[in-house]
Task: structure prediction
Amino acid sequence: MDSARQPCGALALTVSYDGAPFSGFARQPGRETVQGRIEQALAVALRREVVTVGAGRTDAGVHALGQVVSFESDGSEPELRALVRSLNALVGDGIVATGVRRAAAGFSARFDAEAREYRYRLVPGPTPPLFLDGVAWWVRHTLDLGAMRLAAAALVGEHDFRSFCVAESAGGRSTHRSIELVEIVPEEHLGEHCVTVRIVGNAFLHSMVRVIAGSLVEVGMGRRDPEWIAEALAACDRSAAGPTAPAGGLTLWHVSYPEECWL
Result:
């Protein structure tokens, strides 16, 4: 480690991970989790116990490209690039630290976030994905993207999303959230066609993006009319919305913070 002490405050890691082998982001006793693995690696690199906070508590099997993980600095950390190298050498397969920034004391990756972007990939049609297998949901059916976009428009704005989350997680808690953007875009990755549902909002409920994706697929396949999404939203009842889409198609893409958070 550098002999000169660094400024105290907080550090914010940006990490990517393949969610398939993990029981979600949040640490759980006796289970392999992303947070647990990162904290173990940091404890070795920094020679002290480290407690982290993640921007999003992704479910088992959900991936991340831009998860942010914060922890308090004691001023003794190595130079930031050296810290990233050490972490990547220690954290093991499936997780990569892509950067680190210094933040003000008390910074929280969770509570200071102003927006989160998730992307859900779909592979429509009769041909299964090869390179996208594991990071997309093969729906085995053509999708009407126009109908999906009409349905998605009802989700934009501040609403009660009780119909679009795990019912047990909503008990006694506010289920109001604000969605800034729902975009449905045909794309090509590694030569394979897919459809990406891009959702940006201030915060998300448990499995909210996956229920939205599952509901939009119901519309895209013609099983439901586009107006049904607004009706499901108004019902404030989980049984009114569609199925929960598989975890493997979802990626926490990016988390935004006010510029004044950074030192």
